[in-house]
């Protein structure tokens, strides 16, 4: 997507030097900073401390982290260290494990002299595949938006609610939940997006809203608890979120608060869709609530907020009393029964094992 007049991916290799660069998302929307990642620990820090975030982007970043490690030391020990170090950064997003296992399987078959070249080629391929996957997700989601738009009066917008940031900043480009929005906007379909703030890190307020401004898509930022009220009054036509891990039975694990949106949507007859690349499906897991590990992040993310003061300076501000600890589960699980459909690169699947296998029959014996 474009930032100003330049097209950016969220992660890329410099055309001249081959260095890996990222958009450092910690400072958005107030500052746009790009940084170079070199050593393995740079990549681990970027993932753990959320310089990059979003399941697909985490996977691509990990792949590049392995490649940079192979350029420094292509030994089996270094490959194992890269896998372990990066895998320990974020436990919930399945794309991280998927990318690392993919890289390890490829590189373990290569002689050490060829590992760096093969690793960078595969990391580039993972990034390119992610872009195309998300473009296709957008085209399939576009048809859902188009069908709703056909029921509207001429010029009346389709109102879409989204939670967290499943935008191009969470992937290499296009995004998952936002890709249908970008395609609909480009097709001239009037849309309006309700952007959940997404406490405690405010990815909706800081990232999704920033993306909407950049794309020129009409939107409003709302507090996390406003969604149900809007649905009760007919002001939401559909919900589209992303997911960090989807079970083989169609449960979806996404940013904390997604489950509550799904409950409100179900109670009000609002379609609830989840957009995801197939790499986010964990075919080994069937009960999301019981089996998916939920990352518990620092309580400081709850007790402090980041923003720009009236003097123009960005800073962290404490909002709670001294001595009050913050509890911070980062994700929750929405059961498949609350999901209308799963928007994948191959089409829209019913949220069930049978529904997923209709689109991915090659996984019939998985798990």
Automatic annotation (TrEMBL):
It catalyses: 5-(methylsulfanyl)-alpha-D-ribose 1-phosphate = 5-(methylsulfanyl)-D-ribulose 1-phosphate; 5-deoxy-alpha-D-ribose 1-phosphate = 5-deoxy-D-ribulose 1-phosphate. One of its GO terms (molecular function) is S-methyl-5-thioribose-1-phosphate isomerase activity. Gene3D superfamilies: translation initiation factor eif-2b, domain 1, Translation initiation factor eif-2b, domain 2. One of its GO terms (biological process) is L-methionine salvage from methylthioadenosine. Keywords: Amino-acid biosynthesis, Isomerase, Methionine biosynthesis. Substrate binds at residues 53-55, 90, 203, 254-255. The active site is at 244 (proton donor). InterPro entries: IF-2B-related, IF-M1Pi, IF_2B-like_C, Initiation_fac_2B_a/b/d, M1Pi_N, NagB/RpiA_transferase-like. Pathway: Amino-acid biosynthesis; L-methionine biosynthesis via salvage pathway; L-methionine from S-methyl-5-thio-alpha-D-ribose 1-phosphate: step 1/6. It comes from the Bacteria. Catalyzes the interconversion of methylthioribose-1-phosphate (MTR-1-P) into methylthioribulose-1-phosphate (MTRu-1-P). Also catalyzes the interconversion of 5-deoxyribose 1-phosphate and 5-deoxyribulose 1-phosphate. Part of a bifunctional DHAP-shunt salvage pathway for SAM by-products. Pfam families: IF-2B. This is Methylthioribose-1-phosphate isomerase. It is an enzyme of class 5 (isomerase). The record marks 164 as: Transition state stabilizer. Belongs to the EIF-2B alpha/beta/delta subunits family. MtnA subfamily. It comes from Roseicyclus elongatus DSM 19469. Its EC number is 5.3.1.23.
